[in-house]
Amino acid sequence: MAGRSFSLLKQRLRMRQLRVAVAIADEGSVLKASRALGLTQPATTRSLLDLEDYLGVRIFDRLPRGVALTRYGEAVIARARRVLAEVDRIGEDLILIDTGMLEAIVVGVLPSAATGLMPQVLTRFNTAHPGTTVQIVEGRMHELLALLGSNKIDLIVGRLYEPVIPDSFIREPLYDEPLALLARYGHPLFKDGRIDLERLKTQAFILPTLDQRLGQDVEMAMRGNRLELETPVLRASSMSMIREVLMTSDRVSMLSSLTMVGDLVRGGLRLVPCHIETEPRPGGMVRRPSGPSRTVDSLRQIILDYVGELTATGYLRALPPPG
User: Fold this and answer.
1) In 3D, which of 145, 147, 150 has the Cα closest to residue 161?
2) In sequence order, what are the residues at sequence separation of 6 or more whose Cβ sits closer than 8 angstroms to the Cβ of residue 90?
3) Which of 27, 88, 220, 319 could disulfide-link to 32, CB 3.0 to 4.6 Å?
4) To the nearest 10°, the Cα dihedral for 42, 43, 49, 55?
5) Burial, 43: exposed, middle or buried (Cβ in 10 Å; 0-12, 13-18, 19+)?
6) Where residue 120 falls among pLDDT bands split at 50, 70, 90?
């Protein structure tokens, strides 16, 4: 491969071939990719063979059932995803021109940042950059990292997790996102002078489901603090449902305080004054190694400023110094 010339590749390569290769990688077989693309199986096979012929390498190993990416294929598909993502955004650019907008950026957010950080951040960003539109994509970290790697989003904001597989993304820790006990303003708990764990054990709780990372963190914190509840727990995957139950009942919850920070600031919810020990939960931003655009960097600065304000109120904690 060291002496191979790719001078003809730029002339022969077609977007259709890249889309076919990515579809085969996504679907796991030529047949399924053909169906997804609306092509015949021979046409899909021909596009793949032409691409492999131009490159001089096999992108897929053919298996008895489906295909598997080769080492070369992993590199080709990663690059193809980025190329196709940029091409697909050409239409967005044209729409922006038609509507008088100057630029669009896409931000991936995790649930706590979606409700706790981004509403206020977007309000401030819109004031500073009225000609820029921001699209929010909410998801789990592994989903958002795939979109970041394929250039479909520009930045990820939220809880930072250690990557399962090492990658080249830059992670910028900004804050510690503590777990806290929350209840509505006017809850009977707040009429008592002292609230301890024994009193909390008798309360009715609503908690995140255990298939969520937040739910797993909460479960560990409950066990670590020996908060063994005496009444059945209501669980929900929807933060909006948990919020509604908290606001309209006497249930208590343990959540990231950032998730409900808007209601804490407005006074609809309050932190239950009972100390609990929790593991550090760092949050921040993830971006590609290439420097962010000037507009994305402006959004980053607004996030930094708002995080500073929330840290001052105690709803977020400053990260401890390294080491």
Assistant:
1) 145
2) none
3) 27
4) -170
5) middle
6) very high
DSSP secondary structure string for all residues of 49-62: HHHHHHHTS-SEEE
87: tokens are: 């091409």
Length of the chain counted residue by residue: 323
Amino acid identity of residue 35, one-letter, is R
The residue type found at 98 is: D
User: Which pLDDT tens digit goes with each residue over 278-306?
Assistant: 888 899 999 988 777 788 889 989 999 99
- The answer to whether residues 189 and 236 touch, using CB atoms and an 8 Å cutoff, is no
Q: Tens of pLDDT along 70-102?
A: 988 888 888 888 777 777 666 666 665 555 555
CA distance 124 to 104: 16
Element (H, E) at 172: strand 170-176
